[in-house]
Amino acid sequence: MPFSSTVKTLTVNNKTRKYYSLPALGKKLDVKINKLPVSIRIVLESVLRNCDGNKVTEAHVRQLANWQPNAKREEEIPFVVARVVLQDFTGVPLLADLAAMRSVANKMGKNPKAIEPLVPVDLVVDHSVMIDYFGTEDALDLNMKVEFQRNKERYQFMKWGMQAFDTFGVVPPGFGIVHQVNLEYLARGVHKDANDVYYPDTLVGTDSHTTMINGIGVVGWGVGGIEAEAAMLGQPYYMLTPDVIGVELTGQLRGGVTATDLVLTITEMLRKEKVVGKFVEFCGPGTSSLSVTDRATISNMAPEYGATMGFFPVDEHTLDYFRGTGRTEEEIEALETYFKAQKMFGIPKAKDINYTKVLKLDLKTVSPSLAGPKRPQDRVELGNVKRTFANLFTAPPEKNGFNQPAEKFNTAYETPSGVTLKNGDILIAAITSCTNTSNPSVLLAAGLLAKKAVKAGLTVQKHIKTSLAPGSRVVTEYLAKTGLLPYLEQLGFDVAAYGCTTCIGNAGDLLPEFNEAIIKNDLICAAVLSGNRNFEARIHPNIKANYLASPPLVVAYALAGTLNIDLMTQPVGKGKKGDVWLGDIWPSDEEVQKLLGKAMNPKAYRNNYAQVKSNPGDLWKKIKGVSGDVYNWPTSTYIAEPPFFEDFSMTPAAIQPIKQARALGIFGDSVTTDHISPAGSIKETSPAGKWLLAHDVMKPDFNSYGSRRGNHEIMMRGTFANVRIKNLMIPALPNGSRFEGGETIHKPSQEQLPIYDAAMQYIASGTPTVVFGGEEYGTGSSRDWAAKGTQLLGVKAVIARSFERIHRSNLVGMGVLPLQFKGNDSAQSLGITGDETYDISGLEEGIKPQQDVVLTVHRPDGSKQDIPVLLRIDTPVEVEYYQHGGILPFVLRQLLS
């Protein structure tokens, strides 16, 4: 091996261990390794340790060791990760793909055990619970019972996976959110292999918020299920060498300002900086002052600010966190010894590292804020919420507004039960999601605010759907121990679930009379949540104004009941002694600080996670899965054998030219994976709803798209079916606004149809299709079905102004061409309406990464136009994936040969 001289030793627990020394590599190559960003060094260690001359070459090591802050990014890094983490929505289809690969191997007379994850894989069941019950002490128990009833078939399948694969583990429902379980339990800091070699914990996960783990110095980020599958099966994760933006934090947060306010400020700042596809690394004295839980909150929202990672190096605070969460002394010693030996311990100063660029933020400039009503980067200072909401009420959609007549703003509508609804009324108030629900500083603040509110005589109106979904069971323990839980419960914030709830559309439904009033009167009602996502139709299809806020502000707004209030100058409500102001009930930093010690109890963490194996709960124990190495695919509307390996052969077919294609849809900017991928509830009238009814599934048993991700029949019918998506092929409505919903105009019949129905007609007639998009096509969660569904609908290419990182690579991974308009070209500027046919040429002679290809537009008048577009197949390995028809056939051919 070319770098054997870099293997050095260190002592942990009085035993000598080996490691691949980066300082030694620096000497060997005469490179100042200590000037590299810490995140780059951790990736470099993986490249060095896995250098086999084949997948990972000596040239790869030299390239990355010589990383330059402002070089042109053309080189790719083969990054081999230590482990993979899955959440259940994305994990079940991965397990289905693995099971399908085993079926193929079995049919071909090969050993099905050849298909086995080669790195440890942990699936955390956290996305399946819904808030059907709320505001009662038995909400948690009732919601879990309904969850198990709904998801029995999926859980049986997971139990098969646990026994079929040696390296596949499941954390059952009811333990917490995947990212929190990852921080508190799965993350090891450093690993040790069979040869006693230490190496840092690294991972990819199938949830875009996997980045939360960056808060404890672990390199990892969210990938599509497609890429995670490849990583599980021993493929390196290939990525272009990234730029690294240093964020130098100075000063300290002022009193009353929370970690949530800080993360919303950072999200706004970094979105403006356009950090998509880049690493962000925090440095400077302000960073050193932040607790690990505050760091994890900032790291969590890296997808919202667009970065691949929001990375914090390992320091004393990291060791304290490992200690406080019950890790063993040996693990903590290994973490400290290893990172010190690699000269990567401590938060660096900005001047000591060669960053691509350094951005500065003085923490004392951060102020209390919310973000909304439609995007996490649209921060609004607390004192401006009322005014901006009123302005957005009448503003046009292109300005993120609601396009409503001003005279409607204060009209009140009475529902049959006597509740009066107005624009701006809050109907959902949720302390939810991985961003904040385990951060003791904000949760204790929410509890203290609730206590003061209750004592002042304030209440939350009964029709507001309140919920508390902690990231971990330990949270409930410390809220109970500090005596704050009863006050949250009195305001309706009972623990309703341990899982990802409101943020992913699992808030459960509103009362039918509220839905009716909102739809009938086009009301702009609101949700306030402590989550990280507030895209249109994500929280609830009928709630159009969604604001992200810290847990204490969620409670404050629930008390106020409306966005149409300035909490800085108006009272929150009337209490026993008259007006109660936010300042009267807002907890001081000293009050929060006093209780923080109770949140880090090593014994509580150890006892909690010991139960994953010893006592996973009666509901989980009762689930019975089939056994054996090969799945028998029993009839199920949840799990079906995916069609990605139909007509599989060991030799890939030749690439076919795309001729006479039709447009399936033309979309504007910021079309998210929520718009593309099936998510949320399934409507009876939708193609997926009709399919379920035809298969004898009644409406109450539909469950959500997320829970049915293991069945391609439902998922392809739900692709592009979002109620808020706007297909520009459909003519504007008489009032000038756009039609909303997953429909298109079929050509040449001119019939308006659901996109799924039109796609099936095109497939039946042998007509290829393309999709046009604007800027940031595919932004949002790393939903593999956004790409899988696109492929199953027969789409051959997506042509957009720009792509979100994960979705672009997922399209390639499914054999769909991502093409990017050049310069100022767009579907709109080129006058593309969907009446044309399209050819794509330039790939016949062989494919090169990022080459130019030609889009030929044939117009109805007989004219044609050749438009150069950029092929966004970015790396040589992606060329291979595309030639094989996608990453799954590519990996299967490798494993079976």
From TrEMBL:
It is an enzyme of class 4 (lyase). It catalyses: citrate = D-threo-isocitrate; (2S,3R)-3-hydroxybutane-1,2,3-tricarboxylate = 2-methyl-cis-aconitate + H2O. GO terms for biological process: tricarboxylic acid cycle. InterPro entries: AcnA_IRP_Swivel, Acnase/IPM_dHydase_lsu_aba_1/3, Acoase/IPM_deHydtase_lsu_aba, Aconitase/3IPM_dehydase_swvl, Aconitase/IRP2, Aconitase_4Fe-4S_BS, Aconitase_4Fe-4S_dom, AconitaseA/IPMdHydase_ssu_swvl. Residues 67-561 form the Aconitase/3-isopropylmalate dehydratase large subunit alpha/beta/alpha domain. Keywords: 4Fe-4S, Iron, Iron-sulfur, Lyase, Metal-binding, RNA-binding, Tricarboxylic acid cycle. CDD domains: AcnA_IRP (cd01586), AcnA_IRP_Swivel (cd01580). Pfam families: Aconitase, Aconitase_C. One of its GO terms (molecular function) is 4 iron, 4 sulfur cluster binding. Pathway: Carbohydrate metabolism; tricarboxylic acid cycle; isocitrate from oxaloacetate: step 2/2; Organic acid metabolism; propanoate degradation. Residues 695-822 form the Aconitase A/isopropylmalate dehydratase small subunit swivel domain. Its EC number is 4.2.1.3. NCBIfam families: aconitase_1, PRK09277.1, PRK12881.1. Belongs to the aconitase/IPM isomerase family. Catalyzes the isomerization of citrate to isocitrate via cis-aconitate. Monomer. PANTHER family: ACONITASE/IRON-RESPONSIVE ELEMENT FAMILY MEMBER. This is Aconitate hydratase. It comes from Advenella faeciporci.
